[in-house]
Design goal:
- The chain is built from ten helices and 25 strands.
- 22% of the residues lie in helices and 35% in strands.
- The N terminus is likely disordered.
- 51% of the residues are buried.
- It has three domains: 111 residues; 119 residues, Cathepsin D, subunit A, domain 1; 125 residues, Acid Proteases (Cathepsin D, subunit A, domain 1).
- The strands form three sheets. Strands 14, 15, 16, 17, 18, 19, 20, 21, 22 and 23 form a ten-stranded mixed β-sheet that branches. Strands 1, 2, 4, 5, 6, 7, 8, 9 and 10 form a nine-stranded mixed β-sheet that branches. The protein has a six-stranded antiparallel β-sheet with strand order 3-12-11-24-25-13, with no helix packed on it.
- Strand 24 and strand 25 form a beta hairpin.
- With 391 residues, it is an alpha+beta fold.
Amino acid sequence: MLPILLAPLLAALPLGPSPAALALTHGDLEGALSLPSNGPQEEIYLRARVALAHWDLALARTLATKLDAEDRPAAELAWMIAHAERNPAGLSRAAVRLCALGDPTGRACADAKLYRKRIAVPSVDLAASTTLPTSAKAPFPLTLANAGTGPTGFVIDSGASDTVISSRLANKLHLRLTKAGFPVRVAGAGGRASAHLAILPVLTLGAATLRNTPVLVMDLDDLDRAGIEGILAPQQALAGLTVAIDLGAHQLRIERGSPKPSHARSATVPYRMAGLDLAVEARVEGGRAALFGLDTGMAGAYAIAADYLPSEPTGATLALHGAGANSLASTLAPRTVQLGSLTLTPTGTCVRSSLSQGGMPLAGLLGNGLWANGVITFDTVAHNVTVELDN
C-alpha cells in the first residue's frame, strides 16, 4: 500500500523560487529562514509557513495579516490555517478566495464546492479506551471500521494527507460528491488519480465514533479487491486522541491522554505539518536533517527524494504500482535513520523515487520497515509521535 498525498500548493511569488523557498520545498525548515529570500513579502510568507509547520497557528495568522491581502500567498496561508483548525466556515471563505485567485491543484476549488453549504464541525466521540485487532498478514495496519454498511477494511495511514474512501463505498452510502475534482499523487510511485470530496456522516472504530469527517473519494481498485474500502489519516480523523499502532501485537489502541512508553528503546519527537501532510525531522545516515513524511501505510523502510544523498549509488530498478499510474524507482543500499535519540535500522525495501518532483516539501518517506514489530504512537493533542522498539 502506498500513501495518498496531495500535490502541494506553491505560492505565486513573483520572482521565482529563492534559495529560501527552495530550502522549504526540500524539507529544510530552519534553513528556509537563514537563506536569502526574494524580499520582505516572501520572507513573511516563509516565516508563516514555518510557524504553521510548528503548529503555531496564532503566529501564522499574525504573519498572514502582513501580506498583501489581494495576493495569492495570503489566500494560500488562510486556506492552510483553516484546514489546520478544521474550521468549515473559515475553510469556505478561504477556499473561495484561493480558488478565485488561481489554484493549480484544484483542491481549493473542490473545498469551495464542499463547504458552500453549512457543514457541521468534524468531531470524535470516545466512549472508552478501545483496542482493535489489525491484520497479521497485511504489511500495514489494517483494521475493521463501520461506515454504516457493515464492517469494512480501513488502513491506518499517517502518510495520507486526508481520510480516503473508495468510490464503491461512497456509492453504497449515497454520499454527495463535489462535481469539482482534482488530481492526487501516490507518493513513492508517482501515480496520479482523480479525487472528489464528500462528508462521511458516521464512521466507527470500536468505541470511537467519528462524525462529519471530510473525505477524499477516489477509485481504489486494488484495495477494493482485497475488501479494503478506506484509508484513515489518524492525525486528522482522530484529532484530540492518542492513537497507538502496535505492529508486534497487531493491535490499534485509541485513548485519551499520553501513555508512557513501555518498550526498551523509545524516542518522542514533534510532528510537523508539511502542507497538509504529517512529517518529522530525521536524517538518513550521512545526509542532512530534513523533514520526512512518517508513513504507517508504507511497507518498506524508506523512500528518499532524488535530491537527498545525490551521490548515493543506486541498484536495481523497481516497478511501483499506485492509483492512477505505474512508475519506476531505484533501490538503495540500506542506511540507518536517525529519529530523535533512536537509530533505526531498516528492514525491507529502501528506494530513491521521484517523490519531490512538483515541489513536495518532503525529503522522503519513512515507513514500517524502520519500526518492524515496534509501536508507533500519535499524540494528536501535543502533536508528538513516539516510536518504541523492543531491542
